[in-house]
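I would like you to sit down with the record closing this message with an eye to the fold:
=====
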Amino acid sequence: MPKQKTKSSAKKRFKLTGTGKIKRKHAFKSHILTKKSKKRKLALTHDTLVHQHDINSIKEQLRLN
């Protein structure tokens, strides 16, 4: 049987924490930054956790189930 491949896009965008939660980066931090405030850009810099409703979908894409 062939192995199941992970989705390359998900592999690049998400990381697992030590406790098994899924980390993600914020969107809207790549371009058109001049009109955004320093406070807003700083807040977008930090990683955050994936929302509870999206975890099953992402785990499926990463083949963690």
In short: Helices lie at 8-13, 38-45, 55-61. The chain has a mean pLDDT of 95.
